[in-house]
Amino acid sequence: MEVFSDYECPSCRNLFEQTLRPMIADYVAAGKVYLVHRDFPLPMHKYGYEAARWLNAAARAGQFQNVEAALYDNQNAWAADGNIEKYVAGAMSSAEFKRVQIQMQGCAYPDAAVKPAAFALGGQTGQSCSLDTYIDQDRALGNKIPVQATPTYVITYKGTRLPAGSGLVSWPILKQFFDSLLSQ
Amino acid sequence: MSNEARRRWGRILLILGRLVLAAIFLFAAGAKMKPQAGMPWTAGSVKTSLSMFAMGVDSYQMLPPWAVSPFARLLPPFELLLGLWLLTGVALRISGLLSTVLICAFIIAMYSAYHRGLTISCGCFGPGAQIGPTDLIRDGLLFLPLALAVTIGAFLIRRKRGAPSLPESAPSVTHAD
């Protein structure tokens, strides 16, 4: 299951809290479902892209799951002041955070609301960051599906990509769908 | 145009209308029940498609969790039966009324989701694009008037059939000798 989301989007937070969290604890842990997170930061969200960079940096330091949970749990706080770093740091030990900071070198802006080149208007280019490659790859993939809103989820079963779904779906209903697929 | 010709055209339009309405419901039911790409037509694959439709129903966030699955399992077979019923033309007043009520319910659900800013797929004809004005216009300005026209037409024809007819030459006053 691939989930295209924006960390600043409230519906994505709801999907994570109500559906993905129990799913990770249950079906992902049991190896029944393979969950792939895809970044799809929307231009309307001030800090969505910056949050995606922190998440990618955390993933490279082996801290993705903790940071994802921390950012969704504190979405309202960092979406208000842009202080994403505080919650990333709080999700791990200081040694681990140093590794994440190394990944973020050249990526963290003094003003987190600055958008990268992909979002810049009028041909302006922003500062380049190596992590943007991963985000932009996911966005390109999302545009092909096409992702029209976040969250959008795509389920691939036996090599066949099923039609994309979007919005909130509760875990019991999604679980029922997985059960019917797995019983085929 | 004579009354007879008008009546004949009315009947033709009513038949066409109910056939189109039947096709809409049959297509909607088929799109929801057909197996996903690469899956054969089996009871299991239809169940999977209905489970996928349940995810779409759930995304509307209108039904309590316990009602989502039963509703998603019942609606497509109901649409299928309604489509077949409309095809036969039997008791058209009732099937027309049911179609009108169902389309009204769809419009209310879609408008509610759109109004709440939910970025979800309509799910009307299987998985598809996000709910937007196009879906509301399609259902509100095409499907609903069609269902209403069929229903009203069915009632009018029934009334005409039921009305007593007098021979034109019949005297209005009779004299008792």
Describe the structure.
The complex is a heterodimer of chains A (184) and B (177). Chain A has 184 residues and is an alpha+beta fold. Chain A has one domain: Glutaredoxin (3-Layer(aba) Sandwich). Chain A is 49% helix and 9% strand. Chain A contains eight helices and six strands. Chain A has helices at residues 10-28, 48-60, 64-73, 75-81, 84-90, 94-103, 132-144, 171-182; strands spanning 2-5, 36-39, 152-154, 156-157, 160-161, 165-166. In chain A, the strands form two sheets. Chain A has a four-stranded mixed beta sheet with strand order 2-1-3-6, covered by helices on one side. A two-stranded antiparallel ribbon of chain A has the order 4-5. In chain A, strand 1, helix 1 and strand 2 (36-39) form a beta-alpha-beta unit. In chain A, helix 3 (64-73) packs across helix 5 (84-90). With 177 residues, chain B is mainly alpha-helical. Chain B has one domain (3-161). In chain B, helix 1 packs antiparallel against helix 3 (65-88), helix 2 (43-59) crosses helix 3 and helix 4 packs antiparallel against helix 5 (133-162). The longest helix of chain B is centred in the first third of the chain and has 31 residues, at 3-33. The radius of gyration of chain B is 22 Å and the shape is globular. The two termini of chain B are 42 Å apart. Residues 168-174 of chain B have low confidence and may be disordered. Classes of the chains: A alpha+beta (184), B mainly alpha (177). At the A-B interface, strand 6 and helix 8 of A face helix 2 and helix 3 of B.
